[in-house]
Fold:
Amino acid sequence: MPLTKEEKICPICGGPNNCQHGEASCWCQEVVIPKHIIEMVPEDKRGKVCICISCIEKYAKERGM
Ligand SMILES: [Zn+2]
Ligand SMILES: [Zn+2]
Structure:
């Protein structure tokens, strides 16, 4: 299933998330996203829309991970 416009946008920063879902396997499936970052995603998008790599790096560091 092709991604919608919304699914290509990071729900945290609003930038492109480079998600490859539906085409190839996405990098996001191999990355463990810390729970506190997932909690920043609006509930309706959680588990559906990818967070971009820069947000993952940025917020993972904030917690000293
Ligand atoms: Zn982002
Ligand atoms: Zn993805």
Q: What stands out?
A: Residues 53-62 form the longest helix (10 residues). The two ends are 34 Å apart (CA to CA).
